Hints:
- The chain starts with 14 loop residues before the first helix and ends in a 5-residue tail after the last helix.
- It is globular.
- Strands 1-9-8-5-4 form a five-stranded mixed sheet, with helices on both faces.
- Helix 1 packs across helix 8 (about 235-245), helix 2 runs parallel beside helix 8 (about 235-245) and helix 5 runs parallel beside helix 6 (about 140-150).
- It has helices at about 15-25, 30-45, 55-65, 85-90, 110-120, 140-150, 205-215, 235-245, 250-265, 300-310, 340-345, 360-370, and strands at about 50-55, 75-80, 95-100, 130-135, 155-160, 165-170, 170, 180-185, 195-200, 275, 280, 290, 315-320, 335, 345-350.
- By secondary structure, the protein is α/β, with parallel strands linked by helices.
- The chain is built from twelve helices and 15 strands.
- It has two domains: about 15-250, Aspartate Aminotransferase, domain 2 (3-Layer(aba) Sandwich), CATH 3.40.640; about 250-370, Aspartate Aminotransferase, domain 1 (Alpha-Beta Complex), CATH 3.90.1150.
Amino acid sequence: MTHFDIPLSYSAIETGELIPILHHFEGRPHEALIEAFEKKLCEITGSPFAIALNSGTSAIHLALKLLGVAAGEYVPVSTFTYIGSVSPILYQSAQPVFIDCEAETWNMDPVLLESCLSDLSTSRKLPKAIVVVHSYGMPAKMNEINLICKKYGVAVIEDAAEALGAAYFGKSAGTLGDVGVLSFNNNKTITTFGGGALLLKSKENYDRVKYLATHARQSEPFYHHTEVGFNYRMSPLNAACGLSQLPRMAEKVAQRKSIHEQYKAYLEPKGIVFLTELGGFFSNRWLTTILIDPAKNQGVTREDIRLALEKENIESRPLWKPMHLQPVFEDCPSFTNGKSESLFKNGLCLPSGSQLTQPVIEKVISLFRGAPRL
């Protein structure tokens, strides 16, 4: 793996904040750390219940299990996303149906979703659930999506893996659907250095997911199992890392939004396009994303910029390659409009870590000043 002097999204292990957490819980059951982290997640998001898991992918898998998604069933899912949003559908031997994005938020297009569900309803193959993703921390059009799913009796799994700290008309990302998914991977705004969570609306669902995440062990004084579960629970040390970071979530989001605004102030007048927040939408700006149209930027391409940054040991990355273009999913049905393919062709993620210093931000911008014809 290439090491970059300026990585795309780096989150440090802040030992000065972690050590006091470990001292505080010293001598107590390790489960207490995990439960404290879950309680703090509920306080921050407003979710009635949260269960901490070992990854966002595990969280999606358990959400599908919770909602009864079975082998052979269809699951509509955003195509403009990371593969972790989709793989769990295959874990259930179910069938992804990819839904393209709309232009305003780069998230699942409600019009295409309605077409998909209408088509599936005619063949009596309506799904039990969809997976909608808030790409790069920008909320999807959840009012429209929820209304459509309610019309067809389909549950909404809200993949907010990239969107902790984002909000939609005052409600936290992850609390807008039937089940919410969070990720605390190493590059996220808040990290547990490997981990995820499910946000749930009932104690019944919390108990069911916790049971499945701990090998489906029955409440007996001996090990007794009536079904197969999973080893998906978050580790206590990961929970401790999360507890040390959650109090500064608002600060970390503000730092990423500030970085976004600094890039925008210089680059937007140059003809580079930024994703705009609609009224009522609050993005956490997990990553700053840009579009570079060669036809409007004197022939300069996304790849020209990426390679110029790489030459200076600065990491950037193309926007998501749509899942319907991935060889592993080439036989899956899809409802597309070309938008995600255009985003992949012309889009780039810029360094966005909350620990970027002012000189580093200015160095990244300076590379654009030196780009040919830009």
